[in-house]
Amino acid sequence: LAFVLAATVAHAGWIETDRAGGCVFFKAETTEANGAQPLRAECDWAVEPAVLHRLLAKVEDHEQYFSGITKCNVLSQAGPKTQSWQLHETPGLSPREVVLDHETIDIEGGKRFTWTKAADQSHNSGAGVEIPLNQGLWEVTAGAEGSSHVVYELRYLAGGRVPGLVVRWFQGSGVQTLVLELKAYAERS
């Protein structure tokens, strides 16, 4: 199944970079004009979709599951839409911050959780470099026998000065860490 999945996704403009924790990781075949390298993971986990839906919907708790998010404050919430301020910290780099617009969307067999950098960044604290691009999604749908099929996509630019070595680490091990942190937290829930 993973081989078929990788072959199908690779034809859609993605290159497989690794496999770990029930996931196949990809990067886009091309870098965007702005310098972003879109990233993707497709996973099959023995976790009930409802558990992942609950965790991803609680934006204010994302700092509990994702080690790179050190602070997350909900600024507003209206139905399926939430706005949050986040502080991201990575050892060796200046902190990064961003105001994000989140939305939860019902899709066939599950839910999609999206986020994008908000147009209004006036809630930034000045505690970190403003992140110029942060857009992505989690899709969680029902798999066989109570399992979940999970898709993660990210378009991200850290802003400020970031050594190439750190960028390459984030595009590989960093994204794997983030995705598998959600799995580990969900398995304990």
Question: What labels would you give this structure?
Answer:
189 residues, alpha+beta, ten-stranded mixed β-sheet, 4 helices, 25% helix, globular, disordered N terminus
In a nutshell, what does this entry contain?
By secondary structure, this protein is an alpha+beta fold.
SSE diagram, text form:
Layout: H1 2-11, E1 14-20, E2 23-28, E3 39-45, H2 49-57, H3 62-65, E4 69-78, E5 81-88, E6 96-107, E7 110-117, E8 129-130, E9 133-142, E10 148-157, H4 164-188
Parallel strand pairs: 6-8
Antiparallel strand pairs: 1-2, 2-3, 3-10, 4-5, 5-6, 6-7, 7-9, 9-10
Task: Give a structural overview.
There is one protein chain. With 189 residues, this protein is an alpha+beta fold. The protein has four helices and ten strands; from the N terminus they run αβββααβββββββα. The chain starts with a helix and ends with a helix. 26% of the residues are buried.
The ordered string of helix (H) and strand (E) elements is: HEEEHHEEEEEEEH
Summarize the biggest pleated sheet: 10 strands, mixed
- The averaged pLDDT comes out at 90
Distance between the termini: 27 Å
pLDDT < 50 stretches = 1-11
Quantity of strands, as a count: 10
Morphology call: globular
Class from secondary-structure proportions = alpha+beta
